[in-house]
Design goal:
Shape: elongated
Largest sheet: 6 strands, mixed
Structural class: alpha/beta
Helix content: 40-55%
Number of helices: 13
Order of helices and strands: HHHEHEHEHHEHEEHHHHEHEEE
Radius of gyration: 29 Å
Strand order of the largest sheet: 3-2-1-4-6-5
Distance between the termini: 48 Å
């Protein structure tokens, strides 16, 4: 059984005019139906379990339950859309101690308990030996929650400090070293998927970093095969907004560990991009959603990548249907020059050509000069 079976609709969606007017696509209808099928069972189990466990009043609040349901639904959609988790998978969740990885781990553990497929989760943290790093926080939290985990220790901090020139940012070198260590460990323990805590806004920020500074249209994909083809990376938070993660982490009271190595640096380009995205989101709430949708709706023929689309082989495929200019008159200047080129000196005009109409009724009548007169439907400019 694959992850696709998690979200198989149990009834056929009905299309109605209200859906059409609201601008809902087939995918919107499908995801809404799929989520209801999945959550009809999930909500009762989770809420009952929460009451048995005696959760605090803040976690039992309607606000928390609504947000948790939203995150669970978005993570479920991402898992389904990109086939991230399959039956029998061992998912290695990389936990840094930040809000994103805590939220990822929490939601995946939630889904594991209610999913109709079997998969295991193991949390892995890489202690990079940064000065002042609180080594006890994560092990304590993971042990209290009963989560299977590994704490890896490797002094990448000293390596980063030695290879990065003074005044340069550490992020690139740090992430490469961390990624290499985690990739190798995943294969060592037999983990079939590596889950990272990057969310939708991280993907958007990476897109603009590459656009502004890298000269490339690329970002973080929701699912990625490593260059050596030894590991599959997944980003189950791909549809989740950062502001929802911030609120979820606050309500859950995760023991957040700040990154003193990177966070203390000023003028980070990613931080500048993040500020830009937040300003956009405040001023235009739907802009980020539209940009992310654009990343899922790429038109290669409308860009300029010659490797992605074969512009050289584009050629005309005209038929015998002549599209006569629809207007009042054509003034042909320098008729001798036009004739030399082989172009007509008296092109015909017409008011309407039914061959190129878009399935609209028409009543044609022929005039003395053989033009076709047609009443064009009036369109309400407000609509």
């Amino acid at each position: 059984m694959t992850v696709a079976t998690l979200f198989t609709p149990k009834f056929t969606p009905e299309f109605d005019e209200k859906s059409a007017d609201a601008g809902l696509t087939n995918h919107d209808l499908k995801t809404d139906i799929d989520s209801r099928v999945y959550e009809d069972v999930a909500d009762d189990e989770i809420e009952e379990e929460g009451l048995v466990a005696g959760q605090s009043a803040s976690l039992e609040s309607a606000q928390f339950l609504k947000l948790q349901k939203k995150l669970r639904r978005q993570v479920s959609w991402a898992i389904r859309d990109f086939n991230m988790i399959e039956d029998g998978d061992v998912v290695m969740v990389c936990v840094s101690g930040g809000k994103d990885s805590y939220t990822l781990l929490d939601i995946l553990l939630l889904l594991k308990r209610i999913a109709p497929i079997n998969f295991d989760i193991v949390a892995v943290n890489l202690d990079q030996k940064q000065p002042g790093y609180p080594e006890d926080i994560l092990p304590t939290y993971l042990n209290e929650q009963g989560i299977a985990h590994y704490i890896l220790e490797k002094d990448t901090y000293s390596i980063v400090k030695s290879v990065v020139p003074e005044g340069k940012t550490y992020c690139s070198a740090c992430s490469r070293l961390r990624r290499g260590s985690l990739y190798g460990f995943a294969k060592q323990i037999g983990a079939t998927k590596i889950a990272l805590g990057h969310h939708r806004d991280d993907m958007l920020a990476t897109f603009f970093l590459n656009l502004f500074h890298g000269g490339a249209l690329k970002s973080m994909p929701p699912k990625l095969l490593s260059d050596d083809k030894q590991n599959l990376l997944i980003r189950p938070l791909a549809y989740v907004e950062e502001k929802d993660i911030i609120e979820y982490a606050r309500l859950k009271e995760f023991p957040i560990i700040p990154c003193n190595l990177c966070g203390s640096q000023t003028n980070l380009q990613r931080a500048i991009i993040n500020d830009m995205l937040r300003e956009w989101d405040d001023a235009h709430p739907q802009r980020l959603a539209s940009i992310f949708k654009a990343m899922q709706n790429v038109a290669p023929s409308q860009l300029a990548d010659r490797e992605l689309f074969d512009f050289e082989k584009l050629s005309l495929e005209r038929d015998d249907n002549e599209r006569v200019f629809e207007g009042d008159n054509i003034q042909a200047g320098q008729t001798d020059s036009l004739a030399e080129i082989g172009l007509p000196v008296s092109p015909r005009t017409q008011t309407f050509n039914p061959k190129f109409a878009s399935d609209k009724p028409y009543e044609a009548k022929t005039t003395e000069n053989h033009r076709t007169a047609q009443k064009i439907p009036t369109i309400n400019p407000v609509l």
